[in-house]
Amino acid sequence: MKLILASNNKNKLREFREILEPMGYEVLSQSEAGADIEAEENGTTFAENAYIKAKAIYDILGLPVISDDSGLVVDALDGAPGIYSARYAEEGKRCARVLSEMEGVPDEKRTARFVCSICYIDARGEKHICEGTCEGKIGYEKRGTNGFGYDPIFMYGESSFAEISAEEKNRVSHRSAALQRFKELIENS
User: Fold this and answer.
1) Residue 131 contacts residue 181 (beta carbons within 8 Å)
2) Would you give the DSSP letter of residue 142?
3) How far apart are CA 30 and CA 126, in angstroms?
4) Residues 23 and 12 sit within 8 Å (Cβ to Cβ)
5) Cα 104–chain centre separation
6) Fewer CB near the last or first residue (10 Å), C or N of the chain?
7) SS in 3 state form for 77-105?
8) What SS3 state is found at 156?
9) 3-class state of residue 132 by DSSP
10) Which residue segments constitute the domains of the chain, with CATH numbers given?
11) Radius of gyration (Cα) for the chain, nearest Å?
């Protein structure tokens, strides 16, 4: 089955392909499918933003579309960066901002999670939302070279997301959990 990913983000596209292709899905980016737009993410939740992106692509192509909105939720920062994760600071400075804001916060209060809301619009135009989370903590420094975004400061056990392999991350991540729920949804439809 072909799915259009409502994104041109190379890292997200790679993760979606790594997780969905073994399940039998061919994943195309929106530009590969011929929809080169940027939807305005003005929702107030991850689910709303995922729907906004999926609906914009579905309205153009009329094909099954999958999108996600995901981010880092830090308890000590009252849920920030949250839905603003991609806009929390300029590229390359997001981790530094979170680390700076977490200075002096003790280990037991550094709890955080990655959250992923996936919106799937099927061939009939019906919307389905699947969510996943991955619990962890904010580290004290950037660690590792794998991954992207906040991965170097998000501690999953003793390792940051940027220190574990892509295979392990794809088994335990928020996106993986949401995509497993998506797979169950599709299989039960």
Assistant:
1) yes
2) -
3) 19
4) no
5) 28
6) C
7) HCCCEHHHHHHCCCCCCHHHHHHHHCCCC
8) strand
9) strand
10) 2-187 (3.90.950.10)
11) 16
Number of other CB atoms surrounding residue 95 within 10 Å: 22
Active site residues: 69
pLDDT in tens, 58-102: 999 999 999 999 999 999 999 999 999 999 999 889 999 999 999
Burial 99-114 (b: 16+ CB within 10 A, else e): bebbeebeeeebebbb
β-pairing, 2-5 vs 26-29, is parallel
72, 89 Cβ separation under 8 angstroms: no
Question: What digits encode the pLDDT tens for the residues 6-49?
Answer: 998 888 898 889 888 888 889 999 999 999 898 999 999 999 99
Neighbours of 185 (CB within 10 A): 15
Nearest Cα neighbor of 31 from 11, 55, 74, 60 is 60
Q: Is the pLDDT of residue 126 over 90?
A: yes
CA distance 27 to 87: 26
Distance CA 75, CA 101 (A): 12
HEC string of 22-67? HHCCEEEECCCCCCCCCCCCCCCCHHHHHHHHHHHHHHHHCCCEEE
pLDDT greater than 90 at residue 185? no
